[in-house]
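Bit of a strange request maybe. I'm writing a small parser for structure token strings and I need a real example to test against, not something I typed by hand. Could someone generate the tokens for this chain?
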Amino acid sequence: MVLKSIKALLVAVFSLFVLLFSTALFAQENQPEAGKNGIAAEHQEKLDPSKIIMDHIKDDHEFHFFTAGSFHATIPLPIIVYAPGKGVEVFSSSRFGHEGEEEYNGYKLNEAKEIVAIDGSKVYDFSITKNVVQMFIALFVLVLIMLSVANKYKTGQGIKTAPKGLQNLIEPVITFIRDDIAKPNLGKKANSYLPYLLTIFFFILINNLFGLLPGSANVTGNTAFTAVLGIISLIVILFSTNGHFWGHIFWPPGVPFLVKIILIPIELAGVLLIKPAALIIRLFANMVAGHIIILSFIVLIFIFGGMSKVAGWGFSPLSVAFAVFIYVIEILVAFIQAYIFTTLTAVFIGQSFAGGHNSVEGHDDAIVA
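Reply from user aminoacidic:
Good idea to test on real output. This should exercise your parser:
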């Protein structure tokens, strides 16, 4: 019964997304453009699929939900800029207009949605974008969920009695991460690293799921976000290393001297560059790819519609069906990518102290497996 309700909710949410997106595209296509003589001419703006798709997956200074004619349902966000000689200025992003075509107080938005000075002077941007807002919302939701579950354990629920509600949903996930990710890769040190592994798993998962809601930001599809997560994991990995680990990096045993000279920079690059890059690029690429595919199927309706209305309406059911299918797959991908990032982090941490005096019995076999 619950599964059917979830499926119905997903279909309803995505149908609303398609409807709102379609309205925005029709408004863009049907907007008349004024001629030189001041008389509105019948003109349809050429559809630019790449621009539409990129505008929906990149960061912005407002939350845009839908467009109906000349009405834009948006939530503007605060702009915070500092320019030498002008000081700090704070104002609403609505000052730039809906498309960012207007100028305000010597500032404007360029094509990349970056705030620049009209006179070309240096500008330091500290604005709160929709990625930042959504990241804080995800953090608030994460803390709220975990505090709620923790308070139930304090009252004895889940210890003396069976877990219920949200606690019953979260507990198997925590147990899975502990038993199938932390312990096999970290051995006796699993409990020391479990809080970090749980934090990154749930934080990535919540942001992945939020990114699938209409009008939301694709936070995990932003390289800055994934880069910070990758760098934090790299710091944890480096602080977990021991002398045995660095001994194998700077003087690989059992290989000829000339081979060692080649292996040392490769091993060092693997620790400092390749491992964090694997975490950063994998999460970013997978989350962006799903959004691009969904938007591509929707845009195809209007591409066919531009050639023929019959073709547009005829292709619509097929396009929507494929888009809904990818949307459901994206929900699965949201969980998988959170799991992969957490698992690789645990594996890399385990490799950093494997073989040392503090490593646990059988831990090297787990790493090899």
